[in-house]
Amino acid sequence: MLCAALVGDLVLGQGRLQLHASSNIFYNRKSIMEFCHRRDFLFCSMCGTLLSLKSPKFAECPLCGFKRFACEIEGKEIQYTITAEDIRRELKIEPFVILESAQVEEENVKRAVVNESCPQCNNPQLEYYTKQLRSADEGQTVFYECSKCGYKYSLNT
């Protein structure tokens, strides 16, 4: 099934695979499997996930851990594009550049007021806002700021 998807124009008919419906050229299953095998060198043989080239010795499946030795891939032309977002996601780091519009938007938001005293100057009220900084199944982070002295702190809830 996967091989047919990779080839694109294959049609199954009478136990043989045909390259184009209008063509008289037929290929048997063995030649089709060989064709697919030559083109699937970057996919895991166990689960079909794209292999990750993290080592010069082998490519590894990030899902199941299957490894394919580099000698099997050697000589193959591999071309792909990596964005800054891909790198950030892979390394699990914050964005390289925080957009100015995001900072301005955050500063202009009217904040709620809570009746809690400031730990710095004992002002009876603090402004606060919340953000979801951790994963969705965890609590949010509450940011407090004193309007009198400017003291800021946060709590994970």
Automatic annotation (TrEMBL):
Keywords: DNA-directed RNA polymerase, Metal-binding, Nucleus, Transcription, Zinc, Zinc-finger. It comes from the Eukaryota. Its main location: nucleus. Gene3D superfamilies: 2.20.25.10. One of its GO terms (cellular component) is RNA polymerase I complex. One of its GO terms (molecular function) is DNA-directed RNA polymerase activity. It is found in: Nucleus, Nucleolus. The keyword Transcription applies. Residues 114-154 form the TFIIS-type domain. InterPro entries: Rpa12/Rpb9/Rpc10/TFS, Zn_ribbon_RPA12_C, Znf_TFIIS. GO terms for biological process: termination of RNA polymerase I transcription. The keyword Zinc applies. PANTHER family: DNA-DIRECTED RNA POLYMERASE (PTHR11239), DNA-DIRECTED RNA POLYMERASE I SUBUNIT RPA12 (PTHR11239:SF14). This is DNA-directed RNA polymerase I subunit RPA12.
